[in-house]
């Protein structure tokens, strides 16, 4: 099992940051451009526990792949998880968290995954 940890700070208000994150159509805005992320299933304006999203993504060493993830463990204004249901990894659990810190927002990502 591997872990990827990233954090970054942005100048924003917590409510504005959450409004951006809670809309699944904005997931491409927080995904690195080189992954060529593209949602292929219809998505609602706001995520909910149990939401299934299908997308295509370019993954290093795997190439272009279809990925199906479930949104779960939503904590309003704080965090959510997208967990792989179908994809190139044996297991992928991506925890997204936002926190207000000293007049800015801290975005934290923890990805736990297993390679085939």
Explained architecture:
This protein is mainly β and 116 residues long. The protein is 7% helix and 53% strand. A seven-stranded antiparallel β-sheet has the order 1-7-6-5-4-3-2. Strand 5 and strand 6 form a beta hairpin. It is globular and about 40 Å long.
SSE map:
Elements: E1 2-10, H1 14-21, E2 38-39, E3 52-59, E4 63-75, E5 79-86, E6 91-101, E7 104-114
Antiparallel strand pairs: 1-7, 2-3, 3-4, 4-5, 5-6, 6-7
Q: Main sheet, how many strands, which sense, barrel?
A: 7 strands, antiparallel
The assembly state of the depicted protein chains is single chain
What is the C-alpha radius of gyration, as a whole number of Å?
A: 14 Å
Q: Between the first and last Cα atoms, what is the distance in angstroms?
A: 10 Å
Class of secondary structure makeup: mainly beta
- Number of E-state strands: 7
Low-confidence stretches: none
Number of helices: 1
Question: Could you tell me the strand content as a percent range?
Answer: over 45%
Shape: globular
Helix content: under 10%
Q: Averaging pLDDT over every residue, what do you get?
A: 93
Name the helix and strand elements from N-terminus to C-terminus, one letter apiece: EHEEEEEE
- Major sheet strand order: 1-7-6-5-4-3-2
Which key terms come to mind for this protein?
116 residues; mainly beta; seven-stranded antiparallel beta sheet
Summarize the structure.
The protein has 116 residues and is mainly beta. It has 1 helix and 7 strands; from the N terminus they run βαββββββ. The protein has a 7-stranded antiparallel sheet.
């Amino acid at each position: 099992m591997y872990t990827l940890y990233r954090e970054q700070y942005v100048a924003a208000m917590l409510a504005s940051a959450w409004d951006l994150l809670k809309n699944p159509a904005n997931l491409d805005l927080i995904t690195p451009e080189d992954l060529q992320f593209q949602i292929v299933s219809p998505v609602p304006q706001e995520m909910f526990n149990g939401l299934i999203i299908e997308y295509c993504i370019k993954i290093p060493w795997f190439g272009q792949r279809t990925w199906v993830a479930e949104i779960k463990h939503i904590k309003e204004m704080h965090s959510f998880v997208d967990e792989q249901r179908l994809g190139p990894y044996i297991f992928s659990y991506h925890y997204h968290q936002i926190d207000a810190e000293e007049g800015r927002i801290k975005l934290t990502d923890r990805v736990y995954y297993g390679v085939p």
